[in-house]
Write a structure and sequence with these properties.
The protein contains twelve helices and 23 strands. It is of the alpha/beta class and 575 residues long. The chain binds S-adenosylmethionine. Residues 392-394, 430-432, 435-436, 450-453, 456, 478-479, 498-500 line the site of S-adenosylmethionine (SAM).
């Protein structure tokens, strides 16, 4: 499969299973439409009025990636999409057909796991013995034999709830589960999977991402073997930011406190000893992947919510962000009113943490901030960072020293036109509040960071000053405008890219190619858009062919979940 055109703006990579228009991934109608067809059985002329509405999906989003995963399953079983298609018109318009489709199925073997952490399997088709259905099984692991309830249909797959594990696969170890909400909460997918196996799943996600989204590099066999995923030092209690939320029904005053927590996923009965109230938002007192002070903040804010919910006219999200202060070991921190969330005695909750690095005359004092405009601090390997609580900052502090070291070590420039005596430069595109610009600044003469958020740039400048970094300058603007203001010689410059989930703009990638830097380190929380961008950059831009993918490695920023951060290094080919 190759991209359809070399010069289109959107670089469409469409899964081959798609319907006629290859630029679109057509998915899905709304749940209410599928589940509650308003068919007036006494007025036959009204039948067949409801039409299936498809919507465009970004191919690198979870639903877009699912299309590639479905396609792979079809290929494995030598099936066509007609062999698994569901008659959406019928499902939407004939109520009597629903029990046939939305049913309990037993002895289903989970074949594979999606990048979203859901199991995928094949079941018999209600329409015909010659057909099959592809089913998504949340919390199903490859090799499990399970009982499921199908509850929702889509043109090429159905969704289900996991009811029972009939035969568990060897990777399933439910004794590892720590959270009482696991299996219902949409946050974690892998608590019952040994941590090493979690890392293997994530490596597989990266491999698949490059297979699906870097088709040219894959077909030319010019991708390196994907490195093992770097584990997180903390596998629980690592998340420095959580955002529990609640719903208030439209235009209604509620008498009873609404659930406050995280979105629920399906209606699993497989966790038999767990009694969880139904609802689209689960009521969650404690989130075990959150840090201790974040959970203290959650406790405080839940207590406040017991009465304050009556003041809300609509649903909202509560921000919980860890704030880390570095102070002398013997001193006491001055906790002013803004310092953070307060407990039932109206006292600011805080935790003292010992430092286990060279800074042993200092200690850390942590509070939980709830106001998005408030300034919070983070401490990483002797560096301190300040940023607005509501702005982007990496959420797993424990793994940051490892990822920073990895990025630093891969920035080194090694080409013929550059010698050790020559000055080296660093460009940090999408720099946020300066995490990589600052921590990677010491072996280069000059760093230039660019970032679209003026607020983040303000903090990047402040962070450079606070960390005594004198060689960094920051520009407010889109990465796409970066190269206008760059004067460093490209053969001595490395570039860090750390874009948001959607990846880089084509304009930017073309400019990057024209600039032709010595080294590129691309960090991404969406390996699918990363793979797409790298395939495009190397194969479709002017100087792209001069580069090769030196390495790709995952970092487990979010243990127990399906997410993986990927770092890809591009170097210039040697002549
Ligand atoms: C994943 S974050 C990385 C931030 C930083 N590297 C870090 O690790 O803290 C992506 C950043 O890109 C910024 N951003 C989004 N679109 C951008 C664009 N077109 N040009 C420059 N920055 C952009 C966001 O504001 C955000 O700070």
């Amino acid at each position: 499969m190759t991209p359809t055109t070399a010069d289109t703006k959107k670089r469409p990579i469409s899964p081959p299973i798609n319907d006629s228009d290859s630029k679109k991934v057509n998915i899905e109608s709304t749940e209410s439409k599928v589940n509650h067809p308003k068919v007036r059985t006494n007025q036959p002329k009204q039948i067949n009025k409801r039409k299936y509405k498809s919507k465009d999906v970004d191919p690198t989003s979870p639903l877009g990636v699912l299309q590639f995963e479905i396609n792979e399953l079809l290929q494995k079983h030598n099936l066509t999409k007609e062999d698994v298609s569901n008659d959406m018109k019928l499902i939407l318009n004939d109520e009597s057909i629903i029990p046939q489709y939305h049913r309990i199925v037993t002895d289903v073997v989970v074949e594979t796991i999606s990048s979203n952490g859901d199991g995928l399997g094949l079941i018999n088709h209600p329409d015909s013995q010659k057909k099959l259905q592809i089913v998504i099984i949340p919390f199903g692991l490859p090799g499990d034999k399970v009982e499921i309830r199908v509850f929702k249909s889509h043109p090429l797959y159905v969704e289900s709830d996991l009811l029972n594990i009939i035969e568990p696969n060897p990777n399933r170890d439910d004794s590892l589960i720590k959270c009482q909400y696991f299996g219902k909460c949409s946050g974690c997918q892998f608590q019952n999977v040994d941590y090493n196996q979690q890392l293997i799943f994530k490596r597989q996600t990266i491999e698949n991402a490059y297979k699906y989204f870097a088709p040219i590099l894959t077909s030319l066999k010019s991708l390196p073997i994907i490195n093992d995923t770097e584990p997180s030092p903390l596998q629980y209690s690592y998340r420095t930011k959580l955002t529990p939320h609640f719903n208030i029904p439209y235009k209604r005053t509620v008498e009873e406190r609404p659930n406050l927590g995280f979105g629920s996923k399906g209606r699993p009965t497989w966790r038999k000893d767990v009694d969880i109230k139904d609802g689209s938002i689960l009521d969650i007192e404690e989130c075990l992947i959150g840090t201790p002070i974040i959970n203290q903040g959650m406790k405080n804010e839940r207590l406040r919510f017991e009465t304050s919910f009556k003041n809300y006219k609509k649903g909202a999200t509560i921000l919980l962000r860890e704030d880390t202060n570095v102070i002398d070991k013997d001193s006491k921190i001055d906790l002013i009113e803004e310092s953070g969330s307060t407990d039932d005695k109206d006292e600011i909750s805080y935790l003292e943490v010992e430092l286990n690095d060279d800074n042993n005359d200092k200690k850390l004092v942590k509070t939980c901030v709830t106001k998005s405009r408030q300034i919070v601090k983070e401490y990483i390997n002797g560096y301190t960072f300040e940023f607005s609580a509501g702005e982007f900052f990496q959420n797993n502090n424990s793994i940051l020293p490892r990822v920073i070291e990895y990025v630093r070590s891969n920035l080194s420039i090694d080409n013929q036109s550059s010698s050790d005596e020559e000055e080296k430069y660093l460009v940090d595109a999408y720099c946020g509040s300066g995490l990589f610009s600052i921590t990677c600044s010491d072996n280069v003469s000059k760093v230039i960071g660019v970032e679209v958020s003026a607020d983040s740039v303000k903090f990047a400048e402040r962070n450079a000053t606070n960390n005594n970094i004198k060689n960094a300058r920051f520009i407010v603007g889109k990465a796409e405008e970066l190269f206008k203001s760059i004067d460093t010689p490209s053969s001595q410059t490395s570039v860090i890219l750390d874009p948001p989930r959607k990846g880089c703009d084509d304009v930017f990638l073309n400019q990057l190619s024209d600039y032709n830097p010595a080294k590129i380190v691309y960090i991404s929380c969406n390996v699918h858009s990363q793979a797409r961008d790298i395939d495009w950059f190397i194969n479709k831009t002017e100087n792209g062919h001069k580069y090769y993918v030196e390495s790709v490695k995952g970092f487990d920023f979010f243990p127990q979940t399906h997410h993986v951060e990927s770092v890809a290094v591009l170097a210039l080919k040697k002549d």
